[in-house]
Design a protein that fits this description.
about 150 residues, about 55% helix, alpha+beta
Length: about 150
């Protein structure tokens, strides 16, 4: 082959699309990974936990099927003082984005966006398992049940 043909082949080979990275499986993901981003998000979530517990124990909030915090009993929340209602809204507005950011940070440490669905499922399962007996969980049909 002449030099021009070799150069052309080399150039074309760099333009070919690479095969998509395979999504990691649950056994390949360490949700306890300690990257700086993950550690910062875990700290932020821990700081908010005591505020959430108050709402979980009152039955006002619970976890949805995806492990996100959600108002379960709007009527009970509406009967609370304005400052309590505002605190509930603010807490949810901070908690769920941090939970999503944690999922993305863990996924990023394991190859990027391909890992997000697996990490999301693993974290939702973990958060639901960590929930205490008597707190409320929403099932896949949107029905609330108290954790036994």
């Amino acid at each position: 082959m002449n030099r021009l043909a070799i150069l052309l082949l080399a150039l074309l080979s760099t333009c070919l699309p690479l095969p998509a990275a395979a999504a990691p499986t649950a056994d390949q993901i360490n949700v306890n990974i300690g990257t700086p981003a993950v550690m910062a998000l875990r700290h932020s979530l821990a700081q908010r936990q005591s505020r959430l517990i108050r709402f979980y124990e009152a039955g006002i909030m619970g976890l949805d099927i995806n492990g996100m915090v959600k108002v379960r009993d709007q009527e009970k929340l509406d009967r609370q003082h304005l400052t309590v209602r505002q605190a509930a809204g603010k807490t949810i507005d901070q908690e769920n984005p941090d939970r999503n950011s944690l999922i993305y940070a863990i996924a990023e440490a394991h190859g990027g966006k391909e890992a997000v669905p697996v990490v999301r499922e693993m974290m939702a399962k973990r958060w639901r398992e960590q929930f205490k007996s008597g707190w409320w969980l929403e099932d896949e049909k949107g029905v609330w049940h108290q954790k036994p």
